Amino acid sequence: MLKKTTTGFLFLLILYQAQAQSQLKELLEISTANYPELQAKRLETEAAQKLVQYERSDFLPSLDGSYQMVYSTNNNITGMFLPGQVMPISGPPVLENSFDMVFGSAAALLLNWSPFTFGKRESKIQSAKFGQELARHQEVLAILEHQVRFTEAYLNYWAAESIAEAARKNRDRYESNLSLSKNLVDNGLRPGVDSAQFRSLFVRSKIEYLNAQKTAESMLARVRELLGEDQKPITLDTSLKRQVPIQTEEPMDSHPLLERSKVQTLLANAQKTELNRSLLPDFNVWATTFARGSSILFEGGFNNPTDGLAFSKYNYGVGFQVAVPILQFSRTSKLVQRQNSLISAAEAYEMQIERSLEKDRTVAKVTLEKALEAATLAPEYVQAAEYSYQALQARYDAGLINLNELVQGQADLAKAEAESIKVMAEMWKALLYYAAVSGDMEIFLAQLER
């Protein structure tokens, strides 16, 4: 029975540790799914996809239907047309002005189709595709930037909460030493000033603990804001307490920032092609069928004003039209020159980003190496300070040293604990920086699962 209980307890302990170790990764997934800015980026990518579909649908013909009914004077044999899709019919005017009002009606179907566009349609589709690709890369970059921002905020919270816990331990040590000094003073083994000094230090340690708690709460509020979720409990990830293995050289794939810049250059070139092709002719096929009703008689006058509500004439027509923008060459050439400048600017930005990323990768690699070395020394620092403090406390209890030496030893231990937490946080931040400039958060996340 005891064996089963022990096995069950160990299983629950392992399960709890696995859950605790994945806390940061789980929060990162929630933040990526819920943060409003990233939701907006996903919707922008979806909108760019719809634009590509819209440009492709330009091959389909348009068909417009219309119907109109008018009540007007009969000074023209055709009566009056409202602006719309009906092809107008001209005719002679009546002999004299008449202000008698009659009804007229018309209905029409108008088809317009451009079966080929001399490359105009293809250039618009290509621009839309690069726009979609740009939106996708902007979404990927926004996700990376947010994940880095959230992880850094969480590391700051982890460090602040850990420092608050170290401040609590230091407060408890002062409280214990205050109780011990009172006993020594009561027994005449120590002067009364020792208790007074310990009380002063104990009060100061409580204030430092309160300040550390305040800092941790402010860091937690930042994490909560970036999480995009108010109900999820936020706890400390226990895997952040251990050291990261020495990193091997990672293959540097193209960074999302550089990929976005490359697509911006391609988009600028596609837009230039679109401008150049806008000077090519437009070829349209037109077809129409329409019906006309009018109260006006051929010889003039009318019988019944409402006769025009019924259709009396039916027509159809088909043809094609070629239009050349003759006077647009001069204006469009200025836009092409402007686009050439934008292309050159995009290429220059691309070169600058590439150089900047190369520098950042070099700095990130060195920073990570030094942070890892410092992290290996941190436990020794704390261990040595704790050993020294325990030895000083024993000597103080035995009356071999004065209070100042013990206080200094305790201050050194508190400093070592705080510095060790900062060193561990800087190690994880250095790894985060290395992952950010590599454009791959998996470099960071993989270390949480080891």
From TrEMBL:
Main location: membrane
PANTHER family registered for this protein in UniProt: OUTER MEMBRANE PROTEIN TOLC
SUPFAM superfamilies referenced in this protein's UniProt entry, alphabetically: Outer membrane efflux proteins (OEP)
Protein name: Type I secretion outer membrane protein, TolC family
GO molecular function: efflux transmembrane transporter activity; porin activity
Extent of the signal sequence: 1-20
InterPro entries documented for this protein: OMP_efflux, TolC-like
GO CC list: cell outer membrane; efflux pump complex
Keywords: Cell outer membrane, Membrane, Signal, Transmembrane, Transmembrane beta strand, Transport
Pfam families to which the protein is assigned, alphabetical: OEP
